[in-house]
């Protein structure tokens, strides 16, 4: 892993990589680019084998639907060269693993096996004023796809593919619509949908598509396990 935020201008990575993206349930996706496989947010509602074959794991925040610590430890035990990038609060839970779990923060620019990853955001969206906010970072992978975690973070650069939360205790449909419009991606792929029934998925997909899709933007709910070619 190379942290290059202090030695390379952000504009240097403003090129899109061709990559394959596969949704693996809820908020988990596998991104394959340049021979490197990254898995983001393999939580409790994800495919139990989501981390199999991964070269790196990116975790936005600590909630159980985004990371299961025991599963992550098992994956790290099974593959000694597997590494993790996450926020400081999650990284602290794996302090015993030393340099294999890296803490990142807003503004960091990473090179993971030749794949550029920009880090944006700092805190989880508010669920309720009585619930403290936890750390949350978003990842822009390959200059192409942005995973915001549980926040409505707007990156400081163009986003071609926005992984858009479809439903959550912290989210209204109106907020999701405004988020897509503000980020203005070429495509919005809906994630974070395990909290919905089948009927709910249909309703939310229809609303988000009807209110955000236009001639310059497609909106879709990816099929779990089906690879999409992006870039």
- In CATH, the topology is named Metallo-beta-lactamase, Chain A
- Whole-number radius of gyration? 16 Å
Outline: globular
Poorly predicted segments: 1-15
Number of helices: 4
Q: How many domains make up the 3D coordinates?
A: 1
Class, according to the CATH hierarchy?
Alpha Beta
Let me know the number of strands.
15
Structural class: alpha/beta
Distance between the termini: 23 Å
**N-to-C SSE string, H for helix and E for strand:** EEEEEHEHEEEEEEHEHEE
Strand content: 25-35%
Explained architecture:
The protein has 231 residues and is of the alpha/beta class. It has one domain (18-222): Metallo-beta-lactamase, Chain A. Helix content is 18%, strand content 27%. It contains 4 helices and 15 strands. The strands form 2 sheets. It has an 8-stranded mixed beta sheet, with helices on one face. It has a 7-stranded mixed beta sheet with strand order 7-6-5-4-3-2-15. The chain is globular, with a radius of gyration of 16 Å. Residues 1-15 have low confidence and may be disordered.
List keywords for this structure.
4 helices, alpha/beta, 8-stranded mixed beta sheet, Metallo-beta-lactamase, Chain A, 231 residues, 7-stranded mixed beta sheet
Write the layout of secondary structure elements.
Blueprint: E1 2-3, E2 19-23, E3 29-33, E4 36-40, E5 56-59, H1 69-78, E6 83-86, H2 88-92, E7 101-103, E8 109-112, E9 115-120, E10 138-141, E11 145-147, E12 161-165, H3 173-183, E13 187-191, H4 198-212, E14 218-220, E15 227-230
Parallel strand pairs: 4-5, 5-6, 6-7, 11-12, 12-13, 13-14
Antiparallel strand pairs: 1-8, 2-3, 2-15, 3-4, 8-9, 9-10, 10-11
